[in-house]
Amino acid sequence: MKNNALKHPIFKIISQSAEALGIDAYVIGGFVRDFILKRGQHKDIDIVAIGSGIDLARQVAKNIPNHPKVQIFKTYGTAMLRYEDIEVEFVGARKESYTEESRNPIVENGTLEDDQNRRDFTINAMALDLNPSRFGDLLDPFDGLKDLDAKLIRTPLDPDITYSDDPLRMMRAIRFATQLNFTIENASLIAISKNKDRIKIITKERIVVELNKILESEVPSIGFLLLEQTGLLDYILPELVALKGIDEKEGQRHKDNFYHTLEVVDNIAQNTDDLWLRWAALLHDIGKAPTKKFSKKVGWTFHGHEFEGSKMVYRLFKRLKMPLNEKMKFVQKLVLMSSRPIALAQDVTDSAVRRLVFDAGDYVDDLMILCEADITTKNPRKFKKYHNNFKLVRDKIIEVEERDQIRNFQPPISGEEIMAAFGLKPSREIGTIKERIKEAILEGEIPNEHKAAYDLMLEEGKRLGLTQVIASD
Ligand code: CTP
């Protein structure tokens, strides 16, 4: 470890700066963990000073040729500077005690051990010595190295204390377990279940950061299963919990839409890194809980769940203080359209594909990715059939697009042109004619071209009793 981890020139500079101030300093946390895991260069470096972190940051800035600006966070006693593409954060070693109401602790100066004690997990509490005579030595009082090897998330202190002190760590434990494919030790899981309602003191924004990291992982279901198992999901995404369970009436059962959803999310994670498309997969069935009905005739139905689900997306984003912008609209639209290609795959006609492309616009490719991920049947024959059908739909989309240019459809005849042709003022007839032209194009009656559309306009105008005032060319 000695020579490799601290190769970056910044570490020598910090080491010399600490020596000049007569204090010890250590690299701690994610940088050390990710180096050992060979996860690639960690861009955030956390430095603990046995003394003032702010003074050390100022000294380091002096010793860097271009003297980067030091950002100081007085309330937390921390400082930050940027060096090339790396962000270095400095903090004085501390001993912390927490209160019931807040995750912000009362802080006193402490030793390195005090500081390591108050960290979240053993794998995040390992430190590398920056003192010149011990440069690169690993200080690992809680056997973090062993836990890395055993792929275990464990807290340095009694987990009940660690999680109750800072409930965000419950989310972090599950996030690391998902990202790293680690197991959370049993005592921790029990402590999380016990302290779950303390998640209420954590801001929505911080919860969403962790949720997003879970969703961005290779196998996101690991995290959602843990969230469900510990009871945290009830507080964060009750809409998903409501999908759990299988009802049976008169011998008819429906599938468990919670586990189905997680399968869809894992499937989509193999085909896209787009966070919002993954959110769409996670939420695509949330409308099923409030729309579920049973009738003797048709069994279980979820009529209108896509529309209900898309309305729920807005409320959910708002509650979690997520952006209510085009990202939310994208998720809404995908949820709303999530069953369209499936219905279509039964019978792939040109006009149905044209309508799909018209309605989905630029989202059509993402919609296809979502629908393919939605195929979770365990019957290999059906699995193959559905995928083949979707391949047909995809081919047809390309074909129809090349011919008809339906994506981001612009009507070939404008309202002005219709008004000029019949000497009209703005009126209802214009809308009727435009709608007729659009329908004719989507149905494949006429090509998406000006000439054909103009002729249809004249025909439709005649039908409406309008008189042409200028001759067509
Ligand atoms: N830490 C903690 N409790 C928290 C947040 C952070 O004890 N609620 C400590 C951990 O030692 C952690 C370090 O602060 O390693 C840095 O935190 P952060 O930068 O948030 O996480 P990293 O571990 O660096 O991991 P990542 O960058 O993947 O979030």
Automatic annotation (TrEMBL):
Q: Name one Pfam family in it.
A: PolyA_pol
| Molecular function as annotated in GO | ATP binding; metal ion binding; nucleotidyltransferase activity; RNA binding
HD domain span = 258-351
Record-level GO BP terms: RNA repair; tRNA processing
Q: Which CDD domains does the entry mention?
A: HDc (cd00077), NT_ClassII-CCAase (cd05398)
All copies of domain Poly A polymerase head, residue ranges: 25-154
Cofactor dependence: Mg(2+)
Q: Does the keyword ATP-binding apply?
A: yes
Query: Mind listing the UniProt keywords for this protein, alphabetically?
Result: ATP-binding, Magnesium, Metal-binding, Nucleotide-binding, Nucleotidyltransferase, RNA repair, RNA-binding, Transferase, tRNA processing
Query: Which family is it part of?
Result: Belongs to the tRNA nucleotidyltransferase/poly(A) polymerase family.
Would you tell me the protein name for this molecule?
Answer: HD domain-containing protein
Instruction: Tell me what organism the protein belongs to.
Output: Gelidibacter maritimus
